[in-house]
Design a protein that fits this description.
Helix 2 packs parallel to helix 3 (about 95-105) and helix 3 (about 95-105) runs parallel beside helix 6. Strands 22-23-1-24 form a 4-stranded mixed beta sheet. A 4-stranded mixed beta sheet has the order 2-15-17-16. A 4-stranded mixed beta sheet has the order 4-5-3-14, covered by helices on one side. Strand 12 (about 210-215) and strand 13 form a beta hairpin. By secondary structure, it is α/β, with parallel strands linked by helices. The chain has 13 helices and 24 strands.
Length: about 450
Amino acid sequence: MILEVSPLHPLRGTVSLPGDKSISHRAALLAGMAAGESKIENFLDAGVTRVMLDGLQQLGVAYALEDNQLVVTSPGIMAWHTPEEALNCGNSGTTMRLLAGALAAANLDVVLDGSEGLRRRPMGRVTGPLQAMGVKITGSAANTAPLRIEKRDDGHYLKGIRHNLPVASAQVKSAILLAALAADSRTTIVEPGPSRDHTERMFSGLGWDVQREELPDGVRVSLTPPQNLRISPLQMTVPGDFSSAAFLIVAAAITPGSGIALQRVGLNPTRTGLLDVLQQMGAAIDIRERGLQGGEPVGDITVSYSPLHGIAVAGDVVVRMIDEFPVFAVAAAYAEGSTTVSGAEELRHKETDRIAVLAGELRKLGVAIEEKPDGFEIAGQGGLNGGEADACGDHRLGMSLAVAGLTTKNPVRVGGAEIISESFPEFVEKLSLLGGVMKQVPE
């Protein structure tokens, strides 16, 4: 499907966002691990969360999802059964990594597989520490999917470990923490930066002893395993997804005449690095905090158009905005002056090599972008030509290219735009409600 975006239409109005993808993933998994019936409101119904639910279903978990309310009925993790076929994680690295940790705790024979894109993503950072804990888990020769987990015949507990992550990663950290629920002693993970802490927050909400400590050179997270894995059912509401909000925030910031409000968006400080850098660039952003929702801080965000200027992005803020770099690059293209990004080599291991693909597709629209080993440099020009580009199988890239088209001289046509439904199925609907003009046409 091609998404054609017509430029120069101001965005105005108020919208709410679908449930946070990262929290929805974790809520579904923990609901499947719990014994009984869990209810989760504002759950994100998208491709990446459906593969998590379908995988749980293969393990003996039942679910019903209607109008963004998820009801999960499960016998509990200790009563999961061995699936007859490989669990298909689709294009979702989060699903594969989180399930790997949970299945290590469950001690089952299982194979985790996925799309060709997912098979290219590195899994050694997960399999290595799990193997050190005593999990019989192997991947391909290149440490990629499919992953095979074998049941431990002795049925003994896993070993608690201390593990230093070379790169801050919430997915890898969460996989280790999930496996550590079945360990014989405390597990400690040290990260070089503050990755998102949704797993720790949810574990604490379940009454588990998880500690998070800021260090001069990183973050230390420790878990003392519970005495058993009898988990109480969940009752929660998922906050609005900040990563989805990011596209609308940048859209309003770069489109003259715009002024929008986004309601009850998740404001977890490990996720909101984009707000910090946009404000440094001169963006007119106001935040009104609204307390906690599902253990997560939420608030309302208002954004108005304002001229932007280039900045340098590096250090801890990089991991706090790692998913937002595609749309941040669009903001940088509309800013005046040079913007540089460094320390973001992790972008090369996402759904695509996001540095290479982002640079290639933005150039098609007239962006002066230079690829770096761990980032990129953009010579902001205050405007773009428009033209044709492709999502390249990356949902965030597809939405970012569409946002770029809101202020170009000529329309932007984004090929392969159906991939957007992987994480933000309501993207076109929300932008249209705010005044964006776009249409979907067959390729």
